[in-house]
Amino acid sequence: SQFLHKSTNKGLSWQTISPDLTTDNKQQQNQENNGGLSIDITGAENFNTILCIAPSAKDNKIIWVGTDDGNVQLTKDGGKTWTNFRGKISGMPLGAWVPQIIAGRHNAGEAFVVCNDYRRGDFKPYIFRTKNFGQTWERMIDENKVKGYALCMIQDPTEPNLIFAGTEQGLWVSFDNGTNFQQWKNGYPSVSTYDLAIQEREADLCIATFGRAMYILDDIRPLRK
Fold first, then answer.
1. What's the distance, Cα to Cα, between the start and end of the chain in Å?
2. Other residues' Cβ atoms within 10 Å of the Cβ of residue 34
3. What is d(CA 95, CA 101) in angstroms, rounded to the nearest whole number?
4. CA distance 30 to 204
5. ∠12-44-141 over CA atoms, to 5°?
6. 202 φ, ψ (degrees, to nearest 5)
């Protein structure tokens, strides 16, 4: 929803631990007057919704939240207070879709923000990083490093210099902590790459695509070296 909810009993009951973390733009919520689009029973035309939640593995009071109307929100006290970085991330289009935020596994103050704006005709890739809880930001990925708008990324939990990113046109890998990227083409096509997860015990990279099934990059330990 537009709020962050928390359960401490496996989902039997829930508490709301945030205010409205979206822009609460009433014009974007008025799906009945949407210009003729048939109303979806899911309410999918409604904006102002949280898309991603990223709790920190370093500190359980640190939680990042991204919304479909361009807000990047951070709490460092388990939801009591929130900081909104809307308009404070240089180079990020105002109001862009934020499908994924990754909280740093190696540094509590680090986070990676994936955003895209192709729904409004901007097909450039955007991934931003902070190392100090949002005090400063850098753009880690742009159109000079990868092809296709950005959809996801992941940092290796063992080797911080190893970073994978998924775009509309394939899988990309960096061996130098995001300074340079190259496309991974070994048995993997240039397809829309929606999500990434690392099975830590086996060191396998799991890759979810849009319409081209799921791939497993078996054993990424050599890439760590």
1. 42
2. 12
3. 16
4. 44
5. 95
6. -95, -5
CA distances, 12 to each of 6, 15, 132 (Å): 11, 11, 35
Which token pair is 35? 């210009």
Supply the pLDDT for residue 35.
Answer: 61
User: Tell me, what amino acid is at 95?
Assistant: G
Distance, in Å, from the CA atom of 195 to the CA atom of 132, rounded to the nearest integer, reads 25
Instruction: Name the token pair of 135.
Output: 């005090």
Cα–Cα dist 84/94, whole Å: 13
DSSP state of 31: G
Q: Which stretches within the chain are classed as H helix?
A: 26-29, 221-224
Which tokens sit at 91?
Answer: 């180079």
pLDDT, tens only, 134-166: 999 999 999 999 999 999 999 999 999 999 999
Which single residue is written with the structure tokens 């092809």?
Answer: 147
Q: What is the 3-state secondary structure (H, E, C) of 115-148?
A: EEEHHHCEEEEEEEEECCCCCCCEEEECCCCCCC
What CA–CA distance (Å, rounded) separates 100 from 16?
A: 21
Q: Report, as an integer, the average pLDDT of 64-89.
A: 97
Q: What is the DSSP letter of 37?
A: P
Structure tokens at 183: 């496309």
